[in-house]
Each structure stands twice: as structure tokens, then as C-alpha cells.
Specification:
Order of helices and strands of chain B: EEHHHHHHHHHHHHHH
Shape of chain A: rod-shaped
Shape of chain B: globular
Number of strands of chain A: 0
Order of helices and strands of chain A: HH
Largest sheet of chain A: none
Structural class of chain B: mainly alpha
Oligomer: heterodimer
Number of helices of chain B: 14
Strand order of the largest sheet of chain B: 1-2
Number of strands of chain B: 2
Distance between the termini of chain B: 21 Å
Distance between the termini of chain A: 60 Å
Structural class of chain A: mainly alpha
Strand content of chain B: under 5%
Helix content of chain A: 55-70%
Chain lengths: 41, 519
Amino acid sequence: MEMEREAETPGAFVLALIFLIVFIIAYSGNWKYLAGTWWVR
Amino acid sequence: MFRTCPVTGFKVDSQAEGLIRANAVVAVVCLLIGGIFALLVALTRWPAIHLLGNEWYYRALTAHAINMLFFWIVFFEVAGLYFGSAVVLSAPLAWPRLAWLAFILMVGGAALTDLMIFTGQGTVLMTSYYPLKASPFFYLGIILFAVGALIACAVFFATLVVAKREKTYGEGSYPLFTFGLAAAAIIAVLTLAHGAIIYIPTFLWSLGLIPKLDAAMYRLIWWGFGHSSQQINVSAMVAVWYALASLTVGAKPVNEKICRTAFYFYPLFILIASAHHLQVDPGVSSAWKIWNTGYFMHLAVLASMIHAMAITAAVEKAQRAKGVGRGLFDWLARAPWGNPAFSGLFLSMVGFGFFGGITGVTYGTEQINIVAHNTYRIPGHFHGTVVAGTSLAFMAITYYVLPLIFRRQVAFPSLARIQPWLFGLGMYGVAGFLMLAGSYGIPRRHWDITFTGAPFAFEWDPAGITMLSLMGLSALLAILGGALFVLIAVVTVFFGKRVEKTEDVTFPVSAPAERTVYA
């Protein structure tokens, strides 16, 4: 029978997710400059 | 001649110990000089005060940057290299006389460069972009300093060879801390090669022996030196993070192979990432810029993210193994926050990751860089990486260097507990408010952003000016934290009580059995 393995470091995983979310917000906050290069001529 | 450290059990070579002390003391002196100029620069950038005149502003900005980014950090890193090789590996330092020669060259070079800056003969900012011309002694000072640093790297590598050959630390690969420092030293060799390629012709040009240089080529090669030197700092800082996590809570990586692999990414990709400084240069193509900064740069960034998450997970695992904390974040809430080495580690990681890292990737993107370039966004970003990140990590490890190497009890322990908070939170403010001011388009490296006396009046958005005022207030907080650090370090070194036994160490060190990261 397969044993369910308990996460060793769930807190660090959540902190990594928070970092990822902040990263995406900061990056996409500049969307108009990114979009301007690819879509607007 | 060796002594055995009663706390760590390391066999400490007296030559290495003397060199670590000498380099660390000069590092703190350079930090003090750079800090005084930081105060002057911040009070001039604060629009309501605007302290210095134009001539002294650029002089102060040059002195601040060179003393902080080159002198303070590199002297401390050289101390770290000797600690990470001779002390951690319990080996004799190879070529101690050469190491002292390196120290003399570095001190002489730093003093000569500073003298030129103070006397107005080197007001060319840190980048010294061609065709700005300084006195030949300005360039000579930097060349001497760089040669000294290169010799120090050679001593480090030779000590690794001696330790491996004589099996002073046992069998197998070097400890992770030493491994990280080796990555930093490899980048240092590449960096200093770029420095030689660009500073030697510039020196000859300042003497009149070469008629002219190519400005675009200068920028390309200088940034191979200028940015890579910051990656030495990142690699050394990460090594210090591992050591701090190990010393404070006994953390060891969940998977050490991943951490070692991540260290390989720095020497492989970071030189390429230097291209993000040339995003608005006309001489290189968009394809070159995007390939280097949109793809390869992220591999170096990935390494930093692996390290940050590996260390966080290691701290959590160590805390849980001790039975500290049951919920999702109890382990963090009940961490040793009263230990400045731990609070410094945490604040350094958050500052580097959130303030320096995320913004670095964002501003390094070609399309975004077009609007971010030469605004206050950029100094905001690198104050997050090298000050809130690297400098704070180096300050945090000092709280262990003082009792273990200088063998003195840390003076003013109550002030030491709040020092990382003052410095860290102050620097978060400096970095954050500079970036916000930059988002209003306010230019960096400009003495008078209000353009007094210009034929056409220009008004900035008042919110941007407010951000610079808030930056000034934050800078005062950070400088207070920096001044406390210097005070604590100086009083401890010269007047601190001797450490005779383990109990004398001011801030507790985790049990030796737990410290597998560096021993």
C-alpha cells in the first residue's frame, strides 16, 4: 500500500508561493512596455 | 602555528587569523568612509535639504560607491576567503607572505584612489565612463587594488589544494560554505581579467600614451567587470547565508546536491547577464540584448531562488526537528529573533529577494529597461541587492567573526540586537522609495533634479518628490544602523572582553553535531 508522505517544509513552500505571486505582480505591472514591443507597431 | 577553537573545534592557523583580522578591520574602516558619504549623498538627494553643491555631490557619490561596492565588500570577502579555506578546512594558509603582499597592495590602492577622489582628481563616478578623465593615480589605485584581490584569490585556491592534499578536513568534496566561496573566487578571476583589460588602457590613455578609446567598447568591457563584481558578492553572500543558517539554528540543506548545482550557475551565466547594463546602448543589437538578458540571465536568477528556498526550507526543517513550532509558520515566529545573526540573515534574504531580485529581473528586461534606465529605479534595485542583501549578511556574520576570530565578546549586545533591524528596515525604505521616485521618471546621477536656472521650467509630479523625501528619512535610519555596527565592531575589537570558553560567546552557536554545512 502506498504511504502518503507528509511535507517536510510546508511553511517554506508557502513562502516560495508568496514570492512567486509578488514576482508575477511586479513583472506584469509593467505589461504595457512588454506588450508595446510585441503587439504595437 | 595552530590553535584549536573551543567553540567550533576548528584548527586555526595563526597567519590566516591575522590576515582575516587585518582585512576585516580595513573593511569596516571603508564602510565608515562610505557611510559618511552615504549621509551626504542622501541629504543632497532629499530635495528639501539639497545639502551639497554640484562639485562635492559628484565627489561624494564617487567616494560612496567605490568605498562601499569595491573596498568594504572586497576586503570583507578576502577575509571570508581566508576563513572559508584555512579556518573551515583546518588547513595552513598557503603563501602567507603573498597574502600580506596582497593586503598591502589593496590598502595602498584603496588609499590612492580615495585620495584622488577626495582631492577632486577622480570625480568620474564609479563607472568612470570614457571620455570622463581622472588623474592616472585614480586608475592606478584601482589596478593595484585589483591585483591585490587577484593574489588573494590565488592564495585561496592554493589553500584549497593544500587542504585537499593533506586531507585536513576529511575526505570528499569541500564543505558547502567553502564551495560557495570557490564559486565567488572563480567569478572574481573572470571579473578582474575584465578589469585589467579595461583599466590598463584607460590608465595609459589618462597618461597620454594612448590617443583615444572606444566609448561603446569601454562600456561593454567595464560592465564585464562592474556587474560580475556584484555577482562575486551574491555568491559570497549566499555562502554566508548557509553559514548563518547553520550557526544560528543548526540548519542543513534538505538536498545539498541541488545547492551545489545552483552554485555552478553563477560562474556559467552571470557574465552574460552583464548585458542588461547595455540595454539602451546603440552598438549592440536587440537580439543580442534579449538573448542574454531575457534567457541566460534567468539561469543565474534561478540559482539565487534555489538558494533562498533551500535555506528557508533548511531553517524550517531544523526548527521542526527541535520541536519548535507545529503550525505553518510557528517555526519562523519562534526563531531566535533576538540573535542579530539570525535577524540579519532573514532581513538580508527578504531584502535581496523581494527588493533587489524581483526588481532586477523586471528592470533587466529590454522592453522595461527603456523606461527604467537612468532613473532612480536602478539605484533602488541595487541598494536592495548589495546593501540590504550583501552588506547586511556580512554584518550578521560579523557577530560570529568577532567572538570566533577576534576572540572578543560582542560589545553592547542590546544595541547589537536592534542593529540589523535599523539597518535592514532603513535600507528597505531607501531601496523602495528610490524605485518609486524612479517610477515617476526622476533621473539618477543628477545633482539638481529641479533643473534650477534652466530656460524652460519643469515640474515633477509632487508624489515623486515626496518619495525622495521618504528615501532621505529611511537613509537616516539605515545610516544609524550602519553607525551602530561600526561602533559595536570597533569597541568589541579594541575593548571587548576575551572569549575563553564556549559560554563566553555572546550569541549562541548551534551544537557542533548540527553544523554539517561548513564542518
